[in-house]
Amino acid sequence: MGVSCLQRKPFVREDCSLEVCSLFTVSDSCFRGEAEDASGSSLKSQVEAAEVFSDAEVIQGLVPDERDLIKGSLIDWSDHQACQLILTTGGTGFAPRDVTPEATKAVIEKEASSLSCVMLMESLKVTPLAALSRSVCGIRGRTLIVNLPGSKKGAQECLSFLLPVISHAVDLLQDHACEVKALHQKMQQSDSMDGRPCHPKVQRQKSLVDETQIALRPRESDYPMVSVDEALKTVLQYANQGGTHRRNFKDALGFVLAEDVFSQEPLPPFPASIKDGYAVIVADGTGRRRVLGDSTAGVHSLCEVLPGCCVRVSTGAVVPPGANAVVQVEDTALLKDADSGRAELEVMIMKAPVLNQDIRPIGSDIQQNEKVLSAGMCLGPSEIGLLATVGVTQVLCYTKPTVGVMSTGNELVEPGQKLSRGKIRDSNRSTLLACLREQGIPTVDLGIARDNADALLSQILEALDQVDVIVTSGGVSMGEKDLVKDVLRIDLNAMIRFARVFMKPGKPTTFTTLSHNGKSKLFFGLPGNPVSALVTCNLYVLPAIRKMSGFAKFQSTVIKAKLASAITLDPRPEYHRCILSWGEDGLALAESTGCNQMSSRLLSVRSSNALLMLPPKTDEQQVLTAGQMVDAMVLGTVI
């Protein structure tokens, strides 16, 4: 049986993307040290204990009941400290020095009066004195500001009334499209017996991973080291080709054909003139010809060429019956016209034609039922044009897998956010999504997952419902917060096929297979360093996706390139970023993007278009000299 909407709790997102929450007390006596800040302390404890704030940094402040000081603090914390949520307590009543609402109104750009209304309505159920509160809620930039009462009990109660909506409010303000869309989808999927929308509470998945025993974590990896070739072979072993589907040819660019394509008619479907000129009979040779009419492209002509006559034709037009050659206009001369030059009556053929001169016979380009495209071909612009030519508008293609990209890390914030202490902007997700989209791969932005086993599990499970392949960055090394492998293995019963690769950069690269709702899924755990993530995406993810999409050739192109300068080798095989150019000798010249090839240095790939595949250092060879030829893996399109 269904559950009445009236019995359901409001929807609460239990994993808020809130990064920084600031709360400050407005009180003369507390500021002077004459009274204890009980409200501020209790609010801090409440915030830190609430699951929606589980990963947020909480900072506190204290200001007197001075309007300008309150305004200054609100502006500083929203504009310069990158606080996403500011909670104030105190100064909201009727006393002469209660000016917090006035200071708040002076700095906010939009009011959020519904939040104030929620606090008032719920508080009136507790005490009639709630009617004396003048709390203001509003938005400044991307910061939500909430005035709470000054009493310890009132502040805690009012915050609890807002907890069900704060996380969604923050996501909307920060433009976290992935989280907002996910919540809206869940709301739409909820059923209602009485026809009204209901917002069921979705419980966060509880992970079986024990995060607390940090001292007992492995000091050495449990996974064997594999070579790049072994790793790639393993990936391709499990990257199974997907199904097929029919697509309109206009939407098939970049897809691989799953069947041969045959022409339905010959091309051209009629004898066509190659030149602008006159359709003639070869046996007539040179001399005067009476012009019977004309045949232009796209117009059906009823003229038939008779001996001693001709028909004027244009390029691509039907060669009329009776004619067996076309004489170009340059080999003719006008003898007689009519109607002030609007009609030709007689022309001179000055050069004798030969049989079938300048005529494209029926089917000379494409025969009827001729195979024009083969299964396994990738449809590019020329192939799309060919499909249009032969009239095939629906084609059977291999289905491309949908790939979700997720970043992990407590230190990450969205690119549009201001940085607070200890935070960095998430570049990996944008880079990897762009890399995949450049290849025409359908993608889903899975957002940022916090370094928390419960949050990771919930976000991965939600992603598995949407995508065929998950690509994450970060969380796969040996740190105490690197929980991705444990969540996959313990909670999802995934098979970790490899988790260490003998290469630089990209040693912690992890590849996993698992089953979800009866479907096989691939999971790539890429390192968190930006360059490592991009290199390993090109080495492992793209070949896997190409194979799943039906490509016969799924590995990136490797060419020989000449080193422009000497390079010192590393103990591990290295994928060194470089710029390819071509010299007068026709050989590719590889110029390193710099000696600083640290895996965290994204500038080293800024203009690179290839990866030098350098061998590991040996006693016999520790440096590659300028002019030596090495393998180079091409990235994207080389111009």
Automatic annotation (TrEMBL):
**So which cofactors does this thing need?**
Mg(2+)
What pathway is it annotated to? Cofactor biosynthesis; molybdopterin biosynthesis
- State the similarity comment: In the C-terminal section; belongs to the MoeA family.
Q: Name one GO biological process term.
A: gamma-aminobutyric acid receptor clustering
Question: What SMART domains does UniProt report for this protein, alphabetically?
Answer: MoCF_biosynth (SM00852)
Q: Which SUPFAM superfamilies match?
A: MoeA C-terminal domain-like, MoeA N-terminal region -like, Molybdenum cofactor biosynthesis proteins
What biological function has been recorded for the protein in this entry?
Answer: Catalyzes two steps in the biosynthesis of the molybdenum cofactor. In the first step, molybdopterin is adenylated. Subsequently, molybdate is inserted into adenylated molybdopterin and AMP is released.
User: So what does this thing catalyse?
Assistant: adenylyl-molybdopterin + molybdate = Mo-molybdopterin + AMP + H(+); molybdopterin + ATP + H(+) = adenylyl-molybdopterin + diphosphate
Which stretches make up the MoaB/Mog domain? 22-169, 404-547
Cellular component GO terms, alphabetical? cytosol; dendrite; postsynaptic specialization membrane
Q: Which GO terms describe its molecular function?
A: ATP binding; metal ion binding; molybdopterin adenylyltransferase activity; molybdopterin molybdotransferase activity
Pfam families hit by this protein: MoCF_biosynth, MoeA_C, MoeA_N
Q: What is this protein called?
A: MoaB/Mog domain-containing protein
PROSITE patterns (UniProt xref)? MOCF_BIOSYNTHESIS_1
> Keywords assigned by UniProt?
ATP-binding, Magnesium, Metal-binding, Molybdenum, Molybdenum cofactor biosynthesis, Multifunctional enzyme, Nucleotide-binding, Transferase
Against CDD domains, the record matches this protein to: MoeA (cd00887), MogA_MoaB (cd00886)
UniProt organism field: Capitella teleta
InterPro entries for the chain? MoaB/Mog-like_dom_sf, MoaB/Mog_dom, MoCF_biosynth_CS, MoeA-like, MoeA_C_domain_IV, MoeA_C_domain_IV_sf, MoeA_linker/N, MoeA_linker/N_sf
